[in-house]
Amino acid sequence: MFHTMAYMRTFIKDRDVASITPTSPFGVRRVCSNINFDRNNVIIEYGPATGVFTDYILKNMKNGSQLIAIERNKDFKSILQNRIHDPRATIINDSAENVLDALKTCRRSAADYIISGIPFFWLPKDIKDKILYNTHRALKEGGKFLVYQTCFQADHHLKVHLERFFPIVRARFELRNIPPLRLFEAVKCSDRSLVNGKGNGNGNGNGNGSSSSRFPA
Ligand SMILES: C[S@@+](CC[C@H](N)C(=O)[O-])C[C@H]1O[C@@H](n2cnc3c(N)ncnc32)[C@H](O)[C@@H]1O
Q1: Considering only CA atoms, which residue is closest to atom 3 of ligand 1?
Q2: Which one of 57, 71, 176 would you pick to mutate in the ligand 1 pocket, going by the greatest count of ligand atoms within 8 A of its CB?
Q3: 145-149, 187-191, 210-214 — most confident range
Q4: What is the per-residue pLDDT across 67-116, written as a single tens digit (0 to 9) for each?
Q5: Ligand 1 within 6 A of 95 CB?
Q6: Backbone angles phi, psi at 102, to 5 degrees
Q7: Which domains occur in the chain, in start order?
Q8: Which terminus of the chain has fewer Cβ atoms in its 10 Å neighbourhood, N or C?
Q9: How open is the CA angle 38-113-121, to the nearest 5 degrees?
Q10: What is the residue with the minimal CA distance to atom 19 of ligand 1?
Q11: 31 lines ligand 1 (CB under 6 A)
Q12: CB–CB of 49/71 below 8 Å?
């Protein structure tokens, strides 16, 4: 209830918040099921808002892990800062395209996972490209960019752009959210054998996921 009230108040003032309610627990668990919590990770979160993902990640990640949350909205940043007192978490008031600066601030060279709920569908193409380019650079080899968006989006809003930067892009839906979500798992991988469907790749183009070798842009 706290999350929903704080969220709706900010939504009225800032169109970049983009969604009227926080992501459902089903959506959070589904996105985070792509994270291997059994090892130490550097995890970056774009657009944490009131922190439904932040809470889940902090609850599940190991003590040697680090979470860097980048929130553009000052009100959300203050809410999070006042609520979260975990030495493993750093909350930064900035925009996602500056992710490399955030890594530098936290004395990290790269991330294992980047999670994003920012509204790609209304970002101008140059900003979208800058975010994707810097996100790709900020990830370790084998690192994953995990994105959740509202399900109304067409492929040209994000999927085709992801495929320009990442050789493996898998798309799914999560219906247990208002509105339902479109989820993407984009893997940074320069090993072409994985891209062609060997190893952990899913390069079969079966409609439930897709792979592309248009890499990098
Ligand atoms: C759809 S909400 C997701 C909020 C929350 N993570 C959740 O799942 O309920 C999008 C969030 O991204 C933030 N945001 C929008 N554009 C951003 C950007 N360029 N960089 C960082 N955060 C951004 C908004 O302020 C908002 O908190």
Answers
A1: 117
A2: 71
A3: 145-149
A4: 999 999 999 999 999 999 999 999 999 999 999 999 999 999 999 999 99
A5: yes
A6: -65, -45
A7: 23-211 (3.40.50.150)
A8: N
A9: 140
A10: 95
A11: no
A12: yes
